[in-house]
Specification:
The protein is mainly α and 110 residues long. The protein has one domain. It contains four helices and no strands. The relative contact order is 0.10. The longest helix is centred in the last third of the chain and has 32 residues. Helix content is 87%, strand content 0%. The two termini are 14 Å apart.
């Protein structure tokens, strides 16, 4: 069961990453796009094998930070961006904790 869940999580993550790729600057995508996808897939695979959902969530937090930093123009005040970014990251963390807790609860019931 865990292998199927991990494979599904990896597959969904990789599809989502290709959907997010256009948020990166064009020059960066043109020069490093295929390498970025390969590195992302390797990170997801490694973290999924090591830590499961929490590892995958950690990779996504890094990706979210990277996308924000590379796609938001330098003219924008980071104070205006930082608060919503922290809010989104906090919400994601709470979701991850809820997901893991519910998964553990269903394991204990069985």
């Amino acid at each position: 069961m865990r292998n199927r869940m991990g494979a599904g999580l990896m597959s969904a993550s990789c599809r989502l990453f290709t959907f997010i790729m256009p948020l990166y600057p064009v020059a960066l995508r043109n020069q490093f796009g295929p390498d970025m996808v390969d590195v992302f897939e390797q990170q997801i695979r490694d973290e999924s094998a090591r830590r499961g959902f929490i590892g995958v969530a950690r990779v996504w937090v890094g990706i979210a930070s990277d996308v924000v930093q590379s796609s938001v123009p330098d003219e924008i005040s980071w104070r205006r961006v930082l608060i919503p970014a922290i809010s989104v990251a906090g919400s994601f963390l709470l979701f991850a904790i809820f997901f893991v807790a519910s998964h553990l609860a269903t394991r204990c019931i069985k």
